[in-house]
């Protein structure tokens, strides 16, 4: 159930907009929950804006790292399989109701969070001062075994 004062949009579109908003919230989740930053660095508007910009920068850098990993043939296949299974269940549920999942929802299927495996791998690779060629075999093993 969603609360809104926008009565000209279809309910499915409103739910989709809520989902997109939630995706934005999940972008900030790694810094807060997985990297241990639980509070703002300072109280001024400038400091908060700077922290927000750094969070966005971190997210974009992680996207670049993931794209490079994918180009090197390293993907979190277990996570992708879980995502596909969840989506298949949603499609079955919609079909049971005589409905289809809207095309924008299908087109925007993506991970909104970076995996803990990826973040821990990056952290340990930085701590061990490993270059890309030395670090990536470790992640390949992590993705294959956990």
Features:
0% strand
Would you give an account of this structure?
- The protein is mostly helical and 146 residues long.
- The protein has one domain.
- Helix content is 70%, strand content 0%.
- The chain is flat, with a radius of gyration of 19 Å.
- The two termini are 36 Å apart.
- The mean pLDDT is 83.
Number of helices: 6
Query: N-to-C terminal Cα separation, in Å?
Result: 36 Å
Shape label: flat
Number of strands: 0
Classify the helix fraction into a percent range.
55-70%
Order of helices and strands: HHHHHH
Main sheet characteristics: none
Roughly how many Å is the radius of gyration?
A: 19 Å
Q: Mean pLDDT, rounded to whole units?
A: 83
What are the segments in which pLDDT stays under 50 over at least 5 consecutive residues?
A: none
Report the sheet-strand fraction: under 5%
Give the count of structural domains.
1
Structural class determined from secondary elements: mainly alpha
Topology record:
Blueprint: H1 11-34, H2 45-71, H3 77-96, H4 103-107, H5 116-127, H6 132-145
């Amino acid at each position: 159930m969603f609360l809104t004062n926008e009565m000209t949009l279809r309910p499915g579109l409103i739910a989709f907009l809520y989902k997109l908003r939630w995706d934005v919230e999940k972008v900030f989740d790694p810094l807060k929950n997985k990297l241990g930053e639980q509070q703002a660095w300072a109280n001024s508007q400038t400091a908060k804006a700077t922290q927000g910009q750094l969070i966005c920068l971190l997210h974009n850098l992680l996207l670049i790292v993931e794209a490079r990993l994918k180009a090197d043939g390293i993907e979190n296949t277990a996570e992708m399989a879980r995502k596909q299974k969840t989506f298949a269940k949603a499609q079955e549920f919609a079909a049971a109701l005589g409905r289809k999942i809207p095309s924008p929802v299908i087109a925007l299927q993506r991970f909104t969070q970076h995996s803990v495996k990826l973040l821990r791998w990056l952290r340990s690779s930085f701590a061990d001062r490993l270059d890309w060629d030395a670090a990536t075999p470790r992640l390949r093993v992590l993705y294959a075994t956990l």
